[in-house]
Design goal:
Blueprint lengths: L5 H22 L7 H11 L1 H17 L16 H38 L11 H4 L4 H34 L7 H11 L8 H18 L2 H23 L1
Helix pairs in contact: 1-2, 1-3, 2-6, 3-6, 4-8, 4-9, 6-7, 6-9, 7-8, 8-9
Length: about 240
């Protein structure tokens, strides 16, 4: 198994998100659709194939065929009920953090965030629901459906295979802190949401560590999907 160096790790993490954000920033100035929908479409054709392509290529080199095997190195089976219990416990903790840490972080960075958004077109502020509701009903329905499919399934499953699966198991410095390091880098790679890193780290680092110790990727995958579902539900309730 070919391991990943520190430089290789940084390149693999930040190259896909740089491509995604660069394309989104350029097209977001010209294409008239809800920016959240545009972002998800661009991510589908940039970030997702790059990250999955890295996993498939690594599996080809390791096992001789294209698969997601390189994301499941050391993976051990666990009863489904245990996976759900652990994921739901951390989901509850995430709920507490969203009601305590997230508002404080938003308040602390509100000035910087507003200053940045003031230099961008209105659509780049995904929380500007008044702007989003100006689009036609069919467009909003498409946006909600695509956002649901991407943010609840495609995005988090891809990221878990890539971060908690492939990168965590292949990084060449394996210690008890490896999953924490990957979780921190995972948070920082969200260039499109730069002011929520403290919250994201506190939410994802513990579950990443438990998934690493339990050697079961499905724990963090289920947790990630559930967390993203909440943001989708909030968006749908605001715009429909």
């Amino acid at each position: 198994m070919k391991t990943i160096s520190k430089i290789g790790l940084l390149l693999m993490i930040f190259m896909p998100t740089f491509v995604l954000c660069a394309v989104y920033f350029m097209l977001g100035h010209f294409i008239k659709m809800p920016n959240l929908l545009l972002f998800c479409i661009i991510a589908t054709f940039t970030m997702v194939p790059i990250e999955l392509g890295i996993i498939l290529n690594a599996s080809k080199k390791e096992s001789g065929k294209y698969s997601f095997a390189s994301a499941f190195v050391g993976h051990e089976k666990m009863p489904l009920w245990k996976i759900f219990v652990i994921a739901f416990v951390f989901f509850g903790i995430a709920g507490v953090l969203s009601a305590t840490v997230a508002p404080l972080e938003n308040y602390f960075f509100s000035g910087l965030r507003n200053s940045l958004l003031s230099h961008l077109p209105t659509g780049f502020d995904w929380t500007n629901y008044e702007y989003v509701r100006k689009f036609s009903k069919p467009v909003l329905i498409v946006a909600c459906i695509y956002y649901f499919l991407f943010n609840v399934f495609v995005g988090p499953i891809t990221e878990e295979l890539f971060f908690r699966g492939y990168l965590t198991s292949h990084y060449n410095k394996q210690t008890v802190f490896t999953p924490i390091l990957i979780a921190i880098l995972f948070s920082l790679y969200h260039f499109w949401l730069p002011f929520n890193n403290i919250f994201r780290i506190l939410v994802f680092a513990p579950v990443a560590y438990v998934a690493y110790k339990k050697k079961n990727l499905y724990i963090s995958m289920l947790f990630h999907c559930m967390c993203n579902l909440i943001s989708v539900v909030g968006f749908v309730l605001e715009v429909i």
